[in-house]
Design goal:
The chain is built from 9 helices and no strands. By secondary structure, it is an all-alpha fold. The chain has one domain. It is flat and about 65 Å long.
Length: 299
């Protein structure tokens, strides 16, 4: 019984860390345009829409955060093998990983803008300097909290996977949660505010992102401010629930039926959330619909 209570406590702590990780990851990816609408940001200059949006997307969020979290976990594991304190090891591993992420963001942004020079899109040095450091700060939070979750699974729950492999798995899950949950706030609710609800992006509006803020030209900090209030918490709740429910069903039900109890509970949870999602979708269509027709959605 004490083992179960201890496991539930660790599960709650891991879920809390995951909520912070999800919020930070989504804000980081939205500031860097690495999420849902990055193709539209890339397309905008080709359609004649010059902008000041930072765009570092080369890979999607799941593979990118799989790399960052696996690298952070691997470095932390190396420091722990050198007898470093686990907390200090995770901090150092995450900090070194963020330096790699900063190089990645810089070269990705410059490479993308260089490819658009023929369309008149300039390199804004102030955007490069200000946005890169902000994405690095958010990435550190996301990586640190995710690696901490992996360490808790190893040290407290006795998970057999090595730390880097857990980092890879949870990093991919973290990126997927932010991409699927938070980025619609950035892409559909922020970058395409001129489109009617449910209209999508008509061909005529391709690349016609919103480029002006309340005062002056919009940049990625404006987008980050917006998505940190809405998309960030949504992503945090999503990833927090994923981590919490995954560990909770394992701690409580793994001892039933040689592990089959946890599998059955997992399937039941998927079915419950599928029903809830379907109900919310139908409610949204009836409440805010009907969805606009493409010809009605032109800005």
């Amino acid at each position: 019984m004490e083992h179960v209570v201890f496991g539930i406590g660790v599960t709650a702590l891991a879920g809390t860390l995951a909520a912070v990780a999800g919020a930070a990851e989504n804000t980081e990816s939205d500031i860097g345009s690495q999420g849902d609408p990055n193709s539209q940001v890339q397309l905008a200059p080709q359609m004649g829409y010059i902008h000041r949006i930072f765009n570092k997307a080369i890979a999607g969020e799941p593979p990118a955060y799989g790399l960052w979290c696996a690298l952070g976990a691997g470095l932390a594991m190396g420091f722990m093998l050198l007898q470093y304190n686990p907390v200090l090891a995770i901090i150092l591993g995450s900090a070194l990983t963020v330096l790699v992420q900063g190089v990645y963001a810089t070269t990705a942004y410059l490479g993308r803008i260089a490819s658009l020079s023929k369309f008149g899109q300039p390199v804004y040095v102030d955007i490069l300097k200000s946005m890169t450091t902000v994405t690095m700060a958010h990435a550190f939070i996301a990586i640190f909290t995710t690696v901490a979750i992996c360490y808790l699974m190893n040290a407290a729950l006795g998970h057999p996977f090595p730390l880097p492999l857990l980092g890879l798995v949870w990093g991919i899950a973290l990126g997927a949660a932010g991409s699927a949950t938070g980025n619609p706030f950035y892409g559909k609710e922020r970058q395409y505010q001129l489109q009617k609800f449910g209209a999508g992006v008509p061909i005529a509006a391709s690349g016609n992102i919103v480029r002006y803020a309340e005062a002056g030209q919009r940049n990625s900090l404006d987008n980050g401010w917006f998505s940190a209030k809405l998309g960030g918490p949504a992503s945090g709740i999503c990833f927090g629930l994923i981590v919490f429910l995954e560990l909770w069903r394992t701690v409580i039900f793994e001892g039933i039926g040689a592990g089959w109890g946890a599998i059955i509970v997992g399937i039941l949870l998927i079915l419950v959330f599928t029903i809830i999602d379907r109900y919310i979708e139908v409610w949204a269509r009836k409440t805010y619909g009907p969805y606009a027709k493409p010809e009605e959605a032109k800005s």
